[in-house]
Amino acid sequence: MATRKRTSTPPSQEATPSPTLAPPVAKDLAPEVLAALDISDISGNPPESLEGRDPEFLKKLYEGVVRARAFEDRMHSMYRAGDLLGSYYSGNWHEAISVGTMAAMTPEDYFAPLHRDVGAHLMRGMPPEQIMGSFMGKAIAPTGGRDGTLHYGRLDLNTYNPPSHIPANYPVATGMAFAAKYRGEDRVAVAICGDGSTSRADFHEAVNIAAVMQLPIVFQVQNNQVAMGTKLSMQTRSSSFAIKAVAYGIPGIKCDGTDVVAVYDSMKEAVDRARAGGGPTIVEAVTMRMHGHAEHDSADYVDPALKEEWGKRDPVELYEKRLIEAKVITEEEAAETREDARKWAIAARKIALSAPMPDPSNIEEGVYAD
Length: 370
Ligand SMILES: Cc1ncc(C[n+]2csc(CCOP(=O)(O)OP(=O)(O)O)c2C)c(N)n1
Ligand SMILES: [Mg+2]
What we know:
Helices cover 42% and strands 8% of the residues. The protein is an alpha/beta fold.
């Protein structure tokens, strides 16, 4: 099996070895386990090469991460300006994951996201003002303003509303994958969860039955090294989340979640396998949560050294630099793309601010079945 996947060793995992029971590292594992995992090299490899790739596709990924970042930046300032009803759960430093993931899917594939996947929603065609409107409880939100926060999805875009209890979207997406297989439809389901969510029973139940039934699904774990205030070393003693795939008898891939091309390659491999009848894959994408759990949280419990190290790995800047070096875009084009995205996000805010609140007379609509 190929060993091309780039991955990163989160510093927090190195920081807490126990003298008696250190967590296993990849080099200690049996060769057949490593081969099954496709992660024999876990020392920061160079980014996935851009050579031989379609420049238009690379530009599409660039526009995706730039827009996602412009949206996140706008939401952070809207939170501070008091535009939102409550807090905002930032997808900052997750842009490469959400864009690389959606780029590997077709519009017919089922998407079961969680709270840091704005880039994927935008790429799939959800208008930015609809997402902003969700955090304002406006009538233009996908829920019609019944939510007021992050539980927005659109079944017409094959995107399921993120549930509050996480990762309850994992078993739901497994059901979607079962339906696709049962009906003979050419559809793959992609379910997202975080490092902390893997500790819940739903994770195990969903992955286990999907593996047993060889369903067309990809389970992505966004390892941002913290779950609310719980750091990675208090969440698991495993050296990775991708490695858990071995116990379910399915492939696992670990990739650098700050490299949009690496995420795309990993997700594409997994989505293609699922589509071809090869069953589920666990894809772990490693990044860092650079903001609080939500904007009201200062996250002063996060080790500053960790933040400093990951602060050097801005997924948008890194990709932009590589595209310029590879002459896929010029510096001027990059600046223009960023400025267009800034204006696009500002225009969306204006629409969201002026949108009406829900009409109280239809409050029971969509609540009860007729
Ligand atoms: C079953 C359940 N328990 C607790 C919560 C509260 N909660 C919301 S997000 C979160 C942390 C999730 O961490 P992780 O899965 O790593 O995702 P991240 O926020 O880091 O992206 C928690 C504990 C919840 N939503 N559902
Ligand atoms: Mg997390």
